[in-house]
Design brief:
mainly beta; Neuraminidase; Immunoglobulin-like; 4 domains; five-stranded antiparallel β-sheet; 6 helices; 8% helix
């Protein structure tokens, strides 16, 4: 008995010596019993924190947690950032011990063994890093030719000594020892299509261990894929985080990934980084498939409708349980009216699948205006009276007259943003299609708008706060009525989505109409704005009136202007900025409207003395317009109106009319313009890359309306831009020759 005890002591001592010599904490975060499903509705998001407003955000990809904080790595440098789960920056640092990582080859993903962090740089070196002393303390060399893009720590590898799962973009995933020896391989051929930027080891989910890959898969760009290590095959989960995580999109891809315990007390978190935008975490236990689960993902009903309107209950149901659903009752109830039930049979909805529903009984809104609460749910699933879904609720307000939404497109831009001119072009083209219903506000904001040298400062005191609530991650970007559309999780939209999402709102009813008018006393420089809001239905408890002053035809620099929007480049080489926000007459978030019941008419006049300049930029009284809009709180824009002030006497009317003959490629184009004083006039036509293709000097013309026939039969089909120069003023319009 004594001999056995002695040997046990020797073995414990030896294990202690080995652990100390290896300098790591084995199995630091994956010990304990297997997880059990804890969710009644599927995956539960624990946090989603933006880094999109941080100056250091760009090119961040790697992420890891020590169970207390979040650490993020930058691809293009040797910088690291320590944050709270709320996104507060605690520290930023570079590492000593080796030269800086090569540019564009910095740490792309991180792993943690309980004491040290490890990172791979798209090559065959794993860096061992101490984030306390902020030093690189060692390296592990992998076989030549390896391009380690993602890395995760496996505490059970190599007989408990620990190892690292490492893989490239879509390569085999290989387990390496702490000395770089190959221990195991998961062939990429068995994992379908993936493009992994991050990975995390999971020994807690039942049936594991597993590897989770954070992948830029297909059009999703942010998909979590679960891999069974033992079978070297997919474990049946490919979860798209885009519908749930703020900042996630189909255009900005996955970064690193991690799993850690007690970051949120009592839970295990699987988390990741959307490159340069935000980091997020789910409760790992809620990723497990329960035996039964059914939820209503959405119910598509307009918030406002006319009386006596037929409305169909349609939307999406989601099976988050393991049991395939073959039948259920679909129910809805309006206010205290009887429940309307449809029995649905013969369906096949497997685990993690959606079902598009459309209730067969149409609801007709009552003849009198009112507010109606609609509830919808599924019951009697697979004939089991105890198995029901959750209930979704929508509120519909009806009115006797129509109020269609108007669109306010707030574009965030900067003079050094290369692609912003393309956004200006897209916005201008969209407004041209809806001149009376779409209003453009260009907000110069962010790092691309900070002037250098003698360049002008087009920023305002309002831009940063407006941008901070959008979730923007890149430029060009805009919000449409500050609305979160079903395809995204923030108000920020790329230019490809502006027209389609704007059109959704233009065909949507709302509860108020608005009219706006304005005038300027050109002697006192006092601007007077008259606003009237007519509530045709009950509105939100509190609305905010916002009055924006924008200015057109401001000349200045613009990176990318000649390439992406040559129509706004003037003959002098400067860019002709339009719709630029200069001031908010009602302050940052507007003027309160507290009475919003149907039948209310709210009229108010605002005055503002126009300064000679703002931030040393001339405020031209003859090139301004007013855009007014009402919001619910700081976000949702309900409707809007605008007024472009007429040009004063002795100024050029800023309009050009082009009249086309049946075949403009072979015949003339008739150009008309209005002069309010005698001016020397010249006409120039430029091609799409800014080349001069036609010129006509009209000489000195008297005030009044003028027409000119432009002989363009020598021009090929394409897009051109007509510039009329009257004195010192230049006005421009697009010309399309078919």
């Amino acid at each position: 008995m004594k001999k056995i005890t002695f040997l046990a002591i020797i073995m414990l001592f030896a294990a202690s010596v080995i652990a100390q010599s290896l300098d790591f904490v084995p199995d630091y975060d994956q010990a304990g019993p297997s997880l059990k499903s804890t969710s009644a509705t599927g995956w539960v998001l624990q946090f989603s924190s933006f880094i999109s407003t941080a100056s250091w955000k760009k090119n961040t990809a790697g992420i890891e947690s020590d169970g207390t904080n979040i650490f993020i790595a930058k691809v293009t440098s040797n910088k690291f950032y320590k944050l709270t789960i709320a996104g507060a920056l605690l520290d930023s640092f570079a590492l000593t011990g080796t030269p800086a990582f090569p540019f564009n080859n910095g740490i792309r993903d991180l792993a943690y063994d309980g004491q040290y962090f490890y990172g791979c740089c798209n090559n065959n070196i794993i860096y061992k890093m101490n984030f306390t002393t902020k030093a690189i303390v060692g390296t592990i060399t992998l076989p030549s030719g390896i391009q380690g893009r993602h890395i995760s720590y496996d505490p059970t590898a190599d007989g408990g000594l620990g190892g690292f799962w490492v893989g490239g973009w879509s390569d085999d995933i290989v387990l390496y020892s702490r000395t770089g020896a190959t221990l195991n391989t998961i062939p990429a051929s068995g994992l379908g299509s993936f493009s992994a930027n991050g990975s995390a080891y999971d020994s807690l989910s039942p049936g594991g261990p597993y590897l989770w890959l954070y992948s830029q898969t297909g059009a999703n760009m942010n998909t979590l894929i679960k891999v069974n290590i033992a079978t070297k095959s997919l474990a049946g989960i490919a979860y798209d985080i885009v519908p749930n995580v703020l900042g996630a999109s189909t255009t900005i891809g996955a970064g690193g990934c991690f799993i850690t315990k007690n970051l949120i007390s009592g839970t295990t978190t699987i988390g990741g980084l959307i490159t340069g935008v935000a980091f997020w975490g789910y409760d790992l236990a809620t990723t497990l498939t329960p035996p039964f689960g059914f939820s209503v993902s959405n119910l598509t009903l307009a918030s406002y409708a006319l009386v006596n309107t037929q409305m169909t209950m349609l939307g999406v149901l989601f099976n988050y349980g393991a049991t395939t659903i073959t039948s259920f009752d679909l129910n809805y109830k309006v206010n205290s009216n009887p429940t309307v039930t449809q029995n649905i049979t013969g369906v096949n909805i497997p685990a993690y699948a959606n079902y598009n529903y459309s209730h067969s009984t149409i609801w007709t809104t009552p003849a009198s205006p009112g507010t109606f609460t609609v509830k919808l749910w599924a019951s009697n699933v697979n004939g089991n009276n105890a198995w029901n879904s959750d209930t979704i609720t929508r509120v519909v307000t009806t009115a006797t007259s129509i109020a269609w939404k108007k669109v306010v497109l707030e574009e965030f831009t900067g003079i050094y943003s290369q692609y912003c001119p393309d956004g200006h072009r897209v916005a201008n083209d969209y407004k041209a299609l809806h001149p009376n219903d779409v209003f453009l506000i260009n907000i110069h904001q962010g790092s691309y708008a900070v002037p250098t040298g003698t360049d002008p400062d087009f920023r305002t005191a309002f831009g940063d706060a407006l941008a901070a609530q959008t979730g923007l991650a890149e430029y060009p970007v805009a919000t449409i009525n500050r609305h979160v559309f079903p395809s995204g999780n923030s108000t920020a939209l790329s230019s490809a989505d502006w027209s389609s999402n704007g059109n959704q709102l233009l065909t949507t009813l709302t509860y108020a109409n608005m009219t706006v008018s304005a005038s300027v006393n050109y002697t006192t420089r006092i601007l007077t704005v008259n606003t009237t809001v007519n509530y045709v239905a009950n509105g939100a408890a509190l609305n905010m009136m916002n009055v924006a002053l924008v200015q057109n035809n401001i000349q200045g620099p613009q990176t990318g202007g000649a390439t992406y929007n040559p129509s706004q480049v003037l003959p002098n080489g400067k860019y002709n900025h339009q719709h630029m926000l200069r001031h908010l007459l009602t302050g940052q978030w507007g003027d309160s409207i507290t009475v919003t019941t149907a039948g209310t008419v709210r009229s108010k006049t605002y005055t503002y003395t126009l300064p000679a300049s703002i931030s040393n930029i001339n405020l031209d009284m003859y090139n301004i317009e007013v855009i007014a809009f009402i919001t619910e709180g700081k976000q949702e824009i309900v409707t809007a109106g605008g007024f472009k002030l007429p040009v004063a006497v002795n100024e050029v009317n800023n309009t050009i009319d082009l009249s086309f003959y049946p075949n403009p490629a072979k015949d003339n184009v008739q150009l008309s313009f209005n002069l309010s004083k005698k001016e020397n006039v010249s006409i120039n036509i430029y091609n799409s890359i800014g080349g001069l293709v036609f010129t006509q000097n009209k000489g000195e013309l008297q005030s009044g309306n003028h027409t000119s026939n432009l002989n363009v039969n020598t021009l090929a089909s394409g897009i051109y831009f007509v510039n009329v120069k009257a004195g010192e003023i230049i006005i421009s319009k697009k010309l399309v020759i078919e």
